[in-house]
Amino acid sequence: MGGSGSSQPAPQRAPILKTPWRDISWGDNREALHYLKKFQPQNEELKHIRVLFYGPVGVGKSSFINSVNNVFQQRMTHQALTSTRTADQSFTKKYETYKIQKEDRGNFYPFVFNDIMGLEDGDGRGVRADDLKLALMGHVKEGYKFHPLSSLSACDPYYNSSPSISDRVHVLVCFNNANASETKSSVLQKMKEIREAASDLGKKQK
Ligand SMILES: Nc1nc2c(ncn2[C@@H]2O[C@H](COP(=O)(O)OP(=O)(O)OP(=O)(O)O)[C@@H](O)[C@H]2O)c(=O)[nH]1
Ligand SMILES: [Mg+2]
């Protein structure tokens, strides 16, 4: 059994490449930031563009919201709570909207981010595809705590029966681990269902 006397050879590490395996053009960040700072939705009824993040557990959905806010605030921020380690259960449990504050305090940019519970492996675990579809249509109210075993019902106080255009999700963003081959098949199935629902609703997807 193992132990210090084991003669097992040490596992070989892949050699570090001398040059990057591909060049990535990140574009002009200043121009992108300028565009976002000046951005106004064309539809005047719309208070903000709502962007919803979804994906497996621990892939950095909440961290990304903080990263975007860091850029706008020019300092480290921790608006969205993130987990400190990789787990198989989602750290984010509630439906929360994050706004980005403008330089003139009290005003916010006309785009918001919605963070949700991750898609966990297996049935009855993590956010349900049905709840995500309700969120896309604007039926989920702020602060709703997702129940992996049952979807939000129309009689629940967190059910928004008459969503405004600003309550609806306008852009759906899928997050995934760079090592996508690790994504479990049940999670991939939920992602497929969500993408199909978003396509039926005509949502932009990234
Ligand atoms: N290496 C690396 N780690 C990251 C990155 N983004 C987030 N992390 C780390 O991954 C862990 C999980 O990040 P979260 O932002 O909580 O992930 P999440 O998708 O919101 O997770 P759940 O809410 O649990 O579904 C944290 O320890 C982060 O520091 C990244 O781009 N690269
Ligand atoms: Mg999270």
Tell me what the structure shows.
By secondary structure, this protein is an alpha/beta fold. The chain is built from four helices and five strands. It has a five-stranded mixed beta sheet with strand order 2-3-1-4-5, sandwiched between helices. Strand 4, helix 4 and strand 5 (204-205) form a beta-alpha-beta unit. Helix 3 runs parallel beside helix 4. The protein is globular, with a radius of gyration of 20 Å. Bound molecules: guanosine-5'-triphosphate and magnesium ion. Magnesium ion binds next to helix 2. Guanosine-5'-triphosphate binds at residues 57-63, 82-85, 90-92, 118.
Summarize the structure.
With about 210 residues, this protein is an alpha/beta fold. Helices cover about 25% and strands about 15% of the residues.
User: What is the count of DSSP helices, taking H or I runs of 4+ residues?
Assistant: 4
Associated small molecules = guanosine-5'-triphosphate, magnesium ion
Cα-atom Rg, whole angstroms?
Answer: 20 Å
Query: Alpha-carbon distance between the termini?
Result: 49 Å
Number of domains: 1
H-E order = HEHEEHEHE
Number of strands: 5
Key attributes of the depicted protein:
206 residues; alpha/beta; five-stranded mixed β-sheet; 5 strands; globular; disordered N terminus; binds guanosine-5'-triphosphate; binds magnesium ion
Topology:
Blueprint: H1 29-38, E1 49-54, H2 61-73, E2 96-101, E3 108-115, H3 129-136, E4 171-174, H4 185-200, E5 204-205
Helix pairs in contact: 3-4
